[in-house]
Structures are given as C-alpha cells and as structure tokens.
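Input:
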Amino acid sequence: LAKTTQPISMDSYEGQEVNITCSHNNIATNDYITWYQQFPSQGPRFIIQGYKTKVTNEVASLFIPADRKSSTLSLPRVSLSDTAVYYCLVVDYGGSQGNLIFGKGTKLSVKP
Amino acid sequence: ETGVTQTPRHLVMGMTNKKSLKCEQHLGHNAMYWYKQSAKKPLELMFVYNFKEQTENNSVPSRFSPECPNSSHLFLHLHTLQPEDSALYLCASSQVAAESYEQYFGPGTRLTVT
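Output:
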C-alpha cells in the first residue's frame, strides 16, 4: 500500500511553473522523499530526492517543510515534453533495500 | 540511456506457451528488480534480487519464475499465463547500501497473453 497521497491529474501550459504536492502523514525517521517521472510505455526515471528543507537539481526543486508530512515537487517553465506521470514515494533507506512502493501518481498534461 | 536493457520489447503469447523475459544492466549495480504495470494500476513490485539472492517475492503466482545467474542479468520465465497477466513488465537495478537507492528502469516488455 502506497504511503503517499497526491492529485490524480494536473493541467498546465508551456512556460508555467508546476507544483505537485504530496502528502505523507506517516513518514518515518528513516524515510526519504523521492520523485520519479514516467512517460507512456517507458520505465520510471528518478527526478529528485530529499530528506528535509529544499533540494534543487537541474530538473526540479523539492520543498519539504519541517514536519516532513508533505512535500512539493516544483517544475520550472514546463514544456510539452514534461507531460508524464509523476510519482511521489517515501523510501526507507534504513531498510534492507529501499524497496519502492508506487502509488497512482499525478498525470501532468502540458498544453501549448 | 538508462543502462538497463530489456528484451523482447513486445511479446504476444498463448496461455500454453513458455517464454522468458531478459534484463541486463550495465551499471555495476548489485540489486535487480522485476515490476508489473497493468493498465489503470500502480506499479507492483514482483521480485527483488540482492547480490544474486532472491530477497523478496511479493506473493507472485508460480507461473512467474525469476532467475538471476549473475549480478548483471535477470530473467523472468513465464508459463501457462492468464490473459490478466498482460501488462508492461519492467526491470530495474540499483546499488544497495549506497547513499541513494535510486533505481534505474529499463524500457519494459509489453506482454500480451491471448
């Protein structure tokens, strides 16, 4: 059972900033917050990972408040190619393998 | 390039056939995974191999049989499948005990059972 809740779908337009929020009320001390992106008929691709505060890479930013019960993936200036499903996961890196449990994800549609 | 390859990319098989899916990772990782993705359902973890040893089997029916001969190769042997087994089967790899358990996925095999 997925330990996260996120919107089923979101729409945006090219050039806009997109923020996808994920709830993980029961996050544990050893859990990291991880986001993956999946295009149709392809495997998911790692985007970003964080534990607390803010993490930024060349693709996205991840904002995590102090209580860590939610997180927000921010995609700056999206393009049509960012249309995909985005998965929020909490991963126990204190466990044996950090097994991933995927939920249904958020289907982002970017329009021209 | 993900560094994880899967063959075949598409497979159509009858319920009485026996076939195998192959996965190969070129990343030097020590863990490999099989996932199943059905239409309108989340990705489901099927099997986990860590250092070639199976460490997890998520109640997968015995008609799916994994094999991991070495840390770079992973197979999924299929026999007497059912139409509901039609799905995208994804292989992934990761480096266990690294700072990040980031998993690298292959492109998947689209399986249709007729």
